[in-house]
Amino acid sequence: MPQPNEAIVNGKRILLVIGGGIAAYKALDLIRRLRERGATVRCILTKAGHEFVTPLSVGALCGERAFTDLFDPQSEFDVGHIRLARDPDLVIVAPATADLIAKIANGHADDLASAVLLATDKPVLVAPAMNPKMWGNRATQRNVTQLRADGLQVIGPNSGEMAEGGEAGVGRMAEPLEIVDAAISLLGVSSSARSLAGKRVLITSGPTHEPIDPVRYIANRSSGKQGHAIAAAAAEAGAEVVLVSGPVQVPDPKGVTVIRATTAQDMLEAVTKSLPADAAIFAAAVADWRVATPNTQKIKKTKSGAPSFELAENPDILATVAKRTSGRPQLVVGFAAETENVIEHAKIKLQKKGCDWIVANDVSPAHGVMGGDRNTVHLVTMQGVESWPSQSKDDVARQLVGRIAASLAGPRG
Q: Domains along the chain?
């Protein structure tokens, strides 16, 4: 991971709001991780946050005092809550407790943290942390939905053991490196950190063409832009990248080994030969079916009408790799282009395919993103759903690569 001299967000100002949960201890590491990447970090500690970390420890890591009280005359004279709200380039709330999320969602401003969050016009990244029952409560889910509707970004929570003995489930705060990667993406900074150095990443991209005869084929509208952008971002992050590409019109990314494939069977063979890999990202829109017996000559019109074809199911490349009993990549990521019930279908696909993550997006005619330059995706995992804002496919790629780097850097499994 990046060392202190590898400044990524040099000069960017971040305001960190630390809520009152046991995960507040992770906020201390988050401060360190942000500062070693060149960010200036200011902190607000809520009253409950005081119970878990001290203003002294927070201030020592930030290099300036921690702010705590809305009615502190000294704070208001020196900085003031309006300046705290307007000065940063990004506001991060970590940990965001159920109480703090409720305050933000409902526009409360009865302490320094909530007043600043109501007054800010800057991007806000919220990292929830709480007991699984509290996270699953309908009130909390309603509040989180409101945050997203108001344009705030939510990362996590993750699944795992809770501080309370014997408790486990979804509620753990996202790890500091995951939050850092999300912050880098929201700041619009291209990371120069070689976070995937030493890793081998396999990516599929574009459509497949399944022949009907020598001049006709079954295909789809995939342009390959998203898959190629992911390959470029992974190479930029220092990975050894193998890109298995269907027929596309976009240029090959720099520093990437490209293998051409036309049909689904070609792509499966190329993928299999390219293993092993640390991570495999299946962004290609592989045709589900092929003509069982393609004509060897061009089919001519006849008076008997349109020809009929017997279709055969193509191999499922994602499931084949995800369910390997040996040589399976540490992280397998699939894509789901849907026209309705996007998240529900992605959750089903996650279970059916046996992969670790699904990146789902809506390609219905109303959204018009199939082959376009922008994408609005949902990252679906066993821990939950993270909805990302509409952004360029390059930005989606950088954000996804950041998540992949953080996952590979953590414990296996």
A: 13-186 (3.40.50.1950), 200-409 (3.40.50.10300)
